[in-house]
Amino acid sequence: MNKITVLADKNSIVQQFLTEIRDKRIQKDRLRFNRNIERIGEIMAYEISKDLDYKTIQTKTPLTTTNTKVLASQPVIASVLRAALPLQQGIANFFDGADRAFISAYRKYLNETSFEVELDYVAAPKLKGRTLIFTDPMLATGKSVLLTLNALLSRGEPVHTHVVAVVASKQGLANLNENLKNVSFWIGAVDDSLNSHSYIVPGLGDAGDLAFGPKE
């Protein structure tokens, strides 16, 4: 059974960061927008860390030797280029020994409202026996997540997969929950709907453009 955690369901500082990345005035400050996405990634990393395995080691302090705990193994953090890079970095700030994976995916429009998700590039280590943390800031329809996860799984079956998104639509989250197994979802906030272009409403706009500038 999948696990779904929505951080906005409880009051915490993540509410402040979600408000600022949605606010069209504040999000014009690109440095602040990127840092807020990164901060949300750091919060997600802390929450995910509670579900990971640890091992006991002996640590020598200035006074004595004591038993302490460290991660049993480092995860693999995957991101969809380019929008997920700040989110991936926030998670990597906590898992500083993690390997990283990168996937290039984009919407190839067939007409004004219909599109297919195309993959251009996948760079990833072997995933067999590893914990995979998959990041994508905006979970709209879920199509790109399903496609890119399938591409990653050709590198081996992880022991567990965590999917991290800043904002998800109810439809996209339901789609992934139905089609993925043994997955933990970590979502900042869940929005009610998608518009005719499959953008999340109320959402926050194009996360990639806000983080890195508009593309042609």
Write the SSE topology.
Layout: E1 3-6, H1 14-22, H2 30-49, E2 54-60, E3 65-71, E4 76-81, H3 85-94, E5 99-109, E6 115-123, E7 131-135, E8 138-139, H4 143-153, E9 160-169, H5 170-179, E10 183-191, E11 193-194, E12 200-201, H6 207-212
Helix pairs in contact: 1-2, 2-3
Major sheet: 8 strands, mixed
Strand content: 25-35%
Oligomer: single chain
Question: Judging from the principal axes of the Cα atoms, what is the shape?
Answer: globular
- pLDDT under 50 segments (min length 5)? none
* Global structural class: alpha/beta
- Write down how many β-strands occur, each being a DSSP E stretch of 2 or more residues: 12
Rounded mean pLDDT is 93
What keyword list fits this structure?
single chain, about 220 residues, alpha/beta, eight-stranded mixed sheet, 6 helices, about 30% helix
Short description:
The protein is an alpha/beta fold. It has helices spanning 14-22, 30-49, 85-94, 143-153, 170-179, 207-212; strands at residues 3-6, 54-60, 65-71, 76-81, 99-109, 115-123, 131-135, 138-139, 160-169, 183-191, 193-194, 200-201.
What does this protein look like?
It is built from six helices and twelve strands. The model has no long low-confidence stretch (mean pLDDT 93). Strands 1, 4, 5, 6, 7, 8, 9 and 10 form an eight-stranded mixed beta sheet that branches. Strands 2-3 form a two-stranded antiparallel sheet. Strands 11-12 form a two-stranded antiparallel sheet. The longest helix has 20 residues, at 30-49. Helix content is 31%, strand content 34%. The chain is an alpha/beta fold and 216 residues long. The N and C termini lie far apart (42 Å). It is globular and about 65 Å long.
